[in-house]
Amino acid sequence: MKNLFRFVFAWSAIVALAGCSRPLPGAYQGYVEGEFVHVASSEPGQLDRLAVAKGETVAAGAPLFALESAREAAALRQAREQLAAAEALLQDVRSGKRAQELDVVRAQLDQARAEARRAAADFERDGAQFAAGGIAQAQLDRSRAAADASAARVRELEGQLEVANLPARDDQIAAQQAQVAAAQAAVDQAAWRLEQKTVAAPAGGLVFDVLYRAGEWVAAGRPVVRLLPPGNVKIRFFVPETALGGLAVGQAVAVRCDGRAEDVAAEISYVSTEAEYTPPIIYSNETRSKLVFMVEARPLDGAELHPGQPVQVEIR
Predict the structure, then answer these.
(1) Where is mean pLDDT largest: 65-69, 125-129, 299-303?
(2) CATH superfamily of this structure's domain 2-66+207-315
(3) Residue 264: alpha-carbon gap to chain centroid
(4) CA-CA distance, 309 to 299, in Å (whole number)?
(5) pTM for this model (two decimals)
(6) What's the CA gap between 73 and 69, in Å, rounded?
(7) Cα–Cα distance, 283 to 138 (Å, whole number)
């Protein structure tokens, strides 16, 4: 069925070209075809701005259209704020306690040292009085205990101050670093989604068609603009089975069409290995001449040819 359709299309082109001006002896009939680039966004949204019109020629990288992006912009701001918070917490974990917290511990240590000096002096004085028989053993024991407790309190606060000056443990720092990396990934993802709302031309060429208008909703992956780069223009023509052996990829051909005084230079880029039409009878020398094969050629300058345009092709 596919071969029959191609055959009908090919012979329709031949019939349409039967009246073509200045027919070339030995020329083959064909038509111009375009390989369109369907430009779409990976994200859905309402079409906010259309920067091109049908029939314009644009350069590679030129803006084509933009979709509404308020939600994506807000998501990017949120992701950046979360990243800033994660980075600040990581810095806090690395640096240990704040200066104000350290000042509190130092003040407590100074107070404990003063108390330890007083308790040590009391114990020394009670020891002298006990030796002279002025106080009981119980009072000396209480003085000794108070001095020991004050000294222990000093050692405790000194340890706290030393620990307060240390950064957090390695596992805490590693965990917070992972949080920062996750927040950075969220920023990158949000930025990418925002970038997808503004689409530029992947290649220069003709804006062959515009499929949406401003204000319309565009689903993800649906083309908004159809581009036709000059290099995506090709010529399809059909040759009989008897001429197939003389054709090769890279071979030069001349293309002629109505309205042009000069031929268009082109090169064969593809020769079909499958017949476009197979007669419903056994092959024979009398019937195999009915076979036609499709051949494609790329013009060296395709900007002046238009898809659907009938042409005649002469093999050089």
Answers:
(1) 65-69
(2) Efflux pump adaptor protein, beta barrel domain (2.40.30.170)
(3) 39
(4) 14
(5) 0.63
(6) 6
(7) 130
